[in-house]
Amino acid sequence: MTDFLSDSYGRRCIKEYRKYVNYLAEHEHDLDRSLHHEPSYIEFTLCVTSPFLKFAPSWQPLRHSMEKCFLSNQIPNPLDQANNNSIDNNDKSSTKSDTKSDTKSGGKSVNYGPCMNVIENIDARGRADLDVMFRNEPHQTSQIAQALTSYRKQLNHNERIHRQLNCVAYPEHSKCSTLRTNMFSEVSQGACSELFVASTKCFETQAKKKKKALWKHIFLSEDLYALASYKNYCDQVQRDMMRCAEKYFRLAVISYDMERTLEMIDPDFRRNIMKQEWGIVTKEQRQEAEEKMKLEKKEMEELYAKYKQQQEGD
After folding, report:
1. At what angle do helices 174-189 and 138-155 cross, to 10 degrees?
2. CB neighbours of residue 294 within 10 Å
3. Which of 15, 114, 115, 137 has the greatest number of CB atoms lying within 10 Å of its CB?
4. At 223, phi and psi to the nearest 5?
């Protein structure tokens, strides 16, 4: 789930997210509950939920309803577009001026009004499915709160820094690199602790191997191939840890921005979120939750098999 969300905001839907961020920046003083009817929000929502609409069997009725409505009202279907929205190295120099206007319909804003009922159903279903996915990953998702705390600490209560940067929509800013660097230690030892331990062990083991005499390597059957394989393993662990740290940095920025937006459009948001239990899930708690999920899945499969057997008997 955390990988899906990070990829959606940081790569697959980066252009739609930039438009959405620009709209929020321009209208934050007069923002109200009509946000969900804004083209920038709708296009971003459709982009995030596009994998569900394309591949999830239970989403097919929603997809058919959307395509039928879009076709009858001559609204461009985002699912028909090639996956050209990913950000690459050549696109990182983009600026806010590149995306201040909607460009999906020749520079004009698309009128989604005739299909709002379908779009609202897609939005609600997407939120529900994402919530279920979050609950199914108690260990990973609980770490976002810790990363968010670290991000707030780096902002040092300076809201203007976040408004100017938004390091998910515009990662090219040099200050974003500084924020990442300052947060790396806390995130790597918190949300990415298992990879951090593996990486530390690699460095320690490699240092010991370098100090060994040649005859010890021969005696322990450690040839050059084995040493090179271990080095490749350690390099992969290091790359995984860097990706993990980048992911949780991105999720922290996203969470911070979502909290601000929800506070602006929903006066009850802060009161409701205080009821939730935040905190870090330990490795043991995660394993316990995973075992519980496996047991529940097994029970459901047994019940379904029993039901199917009864149906065949009838």
Report:
1. 130
2. 10
3. 15
4. -80, 180
Please list the residues that pair with 105 across neighbouring strands. 108
- Domain layout of the chain by residue ranges: 1-136, 138-283
For the chain, the straight-line distance linking the first and the last C-alpha, in angstroms and rounded, comes to: 41
Closest CA to 119 of 22, 60, 41, 54: 41
C-alpha span between 104 and 65 (Å, rounded): 21
Q: Model confidence over 98-126: pLDDT tens digits?
A: 444 343 434 567 889 899 999 999 988 98
Using one digit for the tens of pLDDT, what is the confidence trace for 163-187?
Answer: 777 888 888 888 888 888 999 988 9
Give DSSP secondary structure letters for 82-118.
Answer: -S-----GGGTT--GGGSSS--TBTTBPP--GGGHHH
Count of CB atoms situated within 10 Å of the CB of 182: 13
Q: Are 169 and 14 in contact (CB under 8 A)?
A: yes
159, 259 in Cβ contact below 8 A?
no
Cα dihedral sign, 197-202-205-208: negative
CB neighbours of 71 closer than 8 A, spacing ≥ 6? Answer: 77
Torsion-angle region of 57 (φ positive above 0: left; ψ -120 to 50: alpha; else: beta):
alpha
Contacts of 189 (CB under 8 A, 6+ apart): 196
DSSP code per residue over 116-142? HHHHHHHHHHHHHHHHHHHHT-HHHHH
DSSP state of 169: T
Q: Are 151 and 166 in contact (CB under 8 A)?
A: no
